Amino acid sequence: MAAMRRLGQDGARIIIPAFHNALIMHTAIDPANAADYPPNIQAILKRRAPAAEWLGQNILAIDTETGWTRIAYDLGEPQFNRFGALHGGAIACVMDDVLSVAAGLILKWGEIAPTLEMKVSYLTQGGPGRHFAEARVLKRGRTINFLDATLSHESGRVVATATATIMIAPMKKKAGG
Asked: What's the CATH number for 3-170?
């Protein structure tokens, strides 16, 4: 797969898989290559949140300059409602996850980006299988940032869209640590 090469703000080399034809991209970024990324990106690649595990998250592409990411989610019965469709809460969880990764791409080490608000628009039922979510930072501010995301089934059908507002804040140290 072709890749774009960019330098991060700290001069670190960043390799971004080509995403000009994103629908055929199915290979996750290898966490073993995390050393190629700045520390905040290394943290995202090396340790997935339990919710990300539950959603079958695989980060496919990132762009630290624009705050863009493409992530695959393998969704199935654990994420279904009683009618056999993706549960709205699981879709919202996917959207929060992909938006959080996009937000994390623009942070400096020692910063966090809590979500202040998120709106999800459910466009159609999601079914079993691989889903692709893309998120990007629309507008950066000193502390408040605006993002959007789209979730599509592997068939190409758009399942949901979302917008979010995040706040960049310093990470507080744990007591006693």
From this structure: 3.10.129.10
Which uninterrupted H or E stretch holds 83? Answer: none
Question: Does residue 168 sit in helix, strand or coil?
Answer: coil
Write out pLDDT tens, residues 64-102.
888 999 999 998 888 889 988 889 899 999 999 999 999
Give domain limits for the chain.
3-170
The span from the CA of 37 to the CA of 64, in Å, is: 9
Phi-psi region of 82 (alpha: psi -120 to 50; beta: other; left: phi over 0): alpha
Alpha-carbon gap, residue 169 to 167, rounded angstroms = 6
Q: How far apart are the first and last CA of the chain?
A: 42
Q: Encode pLDDT of 102-115 as tens digits.
A: 998 888 888 899 99
